[in-house]
Amino acid sequence: MDMANLTWLYGQPQSTGMLKASPEDFVVVEDLGFEPDGEGEHVLVNIRKSGCNTQFVADYLARFAGIHARSVSYAGLKDRHAVTEQWFCLHLPGKETPDFSQFALEGCEVLASARHLRKMRIGTLKGNAFTLVLRQISDRQDVEPRLQAIAAGGVPNYFGSQRFGRGGNNLVMARRWANDEIRVKERSKRSFYLSASRSALFNLIASRRLANQQHRRVLEGDALQLHGRGSWFVAKPDELAELQQRLDAGELLITAPLPGDGEPGTAGEALDFERQCLVEQPELMALLTRERVDPARRALLLLPQKMQWNWWDDATVELRFWLPAGSFATSVVREIMRQDSGDADIGE
């Protein structure tokens, strides 16, 4: 998916800059939102890594502990070319806790380990804390007010380019699958292609609402989410004035669909708008319906928490913020400057 075609919330940045001049310029620390139980048949291991992707570390942990690779899980993927602190979960029923002081993998350091009652699954975390260093900024006068605007009003909650694979290949393969040009049997590939399809459709609708200046206006039938909560409800015509006030106060968030096999959950004006967008992508919609993917909702805007920044000089700024699980730091950087982020962090 071409991220350059998506609408900017504050207009296209004038400044250029560099993200991830080195792995140390992109630091991610997982926030589980809970403490390990201290007992149970699982072991949670917190590892600081650089130069290793998540699955590679998981496979190495499995060999170290003498268990099958399927017995090691994690909450989300983290980029290889970054410094990340990530939790892994080893299923060790009836087995002793390994001596992690003997764990030796280049680029990795075990920070902590503890027993836990439940298996860690994808998405089992509260969020991620980011520390980014943006370098070679060409126009500080353009970047500074953007940082202030983002801290106050957030950014579009777009899925980053990482979701679509290198060169957008996941989306290319999804369309080929939809057209019966290929058969996809491998479970992981099916998941990647379906996820890319839903993400592309969400980005399309979110971008269109921004372009229509409807990202902060409650439409009749909108699916609204309480800030910090996953549940949502539908805006009724006689409640629009009250709901608009609650939205303006930051209590509510407008959502856009992650389409699937079923109704998106909206009604009236909002449903009509979403259908008009989705009719443009019949292949992807047919694929999601055929594969019986459950529909869901996602907040239209993303507000970074605890956001602060420090200019080292006129061309270098250190940026810190916290994002809830499933959000992308690259979507924050996209509103700050134009840059080539490559396969930057997967912040899920």
UniProtKB/TrEMBL annotation:
Binding-site residues, substrate: 26, 128, 328
GO biological process terms, semicolon-separated: tRNA pseudouridine synthesis
Q: What's the Enzyme Commission number for this chain? A: 5.4.99.27
Q: Which reaction does it catalyse?
A: uridine(13) in tRNA = pseudouridine(13) in tRNA
On whether tRNA processing is a keyword of this UniProt record, the answer is: yes
Gene3D superfamilies reported in the protein's UniProt record: TruD, catalytic domain (3.30.2350.20), TruD, insertion domain (3.30.2340.10)
Top enzyme class, one word, equals: isomerase
Task: Give me the Gene Ontology terms describing cellular component.
Answer: cytosol
Record-annotated TRUD domain positions: 154-302
Sorted alphabetically, the keyword list is:
Isomerase, tRNA processing
Q: Which residues form the active site?
A: 79 (nucleophile)
Q: What molecular function does GO assign, one term?
A: tRNA pseudouridine(13) synthase activity
**Short name of one Pfam family for this protein?**
TruD
Spell out the family assignment given in the record's similarity comment. Answer: Belongs to the pseudouridine synthase TruD family.
Reported function: Responsible for synthesis of pseudouridine from uracil-13 in transfer RNAs.
**Protein name (record):** tRNA pseudouridine synthase D
User: From which organism does this entry originate?
Assistant: Serratia inhibens
